[in-house]
Request: fold
Amino acid sequence: MSETPLIADLGGSETAPLTDAKIGVVTFPGTLDDRDAARAVRLAGATPVPLWHADTDPAPLGGVDAVVIPGGFSYGDYLRAGAIARFAPLMAKIVDAANSIDKLPVLGICNGFQILTEAHLLPGSMVKNDHLKFICRDQTLRVENNRTAWTNQYADGQEITIVLKNQDGQYVADEKTLDELEAEGRVAFRYVGWNPNGSRRGIAGITNSAGNVVGLMPHPEHAVEPGFGPLGADGHYSTDGLGFFASVLSQLVGEAK
Reply:
């Protein structure tokens, strides 16, 4: 089966990446969306590199330039969503790299966002949706911060449509933390039209203070190809999720110059 040509490929090749960037995609037991995330990386023009949760190789994350922690139900969401995955050997490397002077870009999607909060790379926590049901729908988000490694290709205040699917998607934090996130511009995305899981202040995604770590509940990797994914506000199939992966490539290419 042949691959779909790269959306952004201007060189006529169906397989060659547009940059030398390598983006790691982590797999835990119970991960569901690692292949989707890898395809999104490839469509954006980078090379996806599979990363296994139990890897103890002393090499630093296989030399990747960024990491995506995709969605799913790591370890069956036992204890709490992301609570066990947080202790995987690979996560120690990711935490160190994200906090290093090089500030490795890390994107946590859905279960990945839950893992990032459990690993204390992002503040707050994720609990069950306020209606106590799994939800799957097309969701509109507003970009509240376009200055991160994963959002710089969006306009500030832009509304995008991507897929939402979760049962532990309610973002919670104490008022002091919420006030700090708001004051420091660290709310990256907010739900538009309806708060689908009861998240405090309609928060759909946040960033760390350095802007290299971003977590969100909806799934950008499911909105990257024409003809698939959610319907946008204009009635066309949304490829709004591709901007996440184009953003990190734009930053990496800029740093390499």
The mean pLDDT is 89. The first helix runs from residue 34 to 44. The first strand starts at residue 22 and ends at 27.
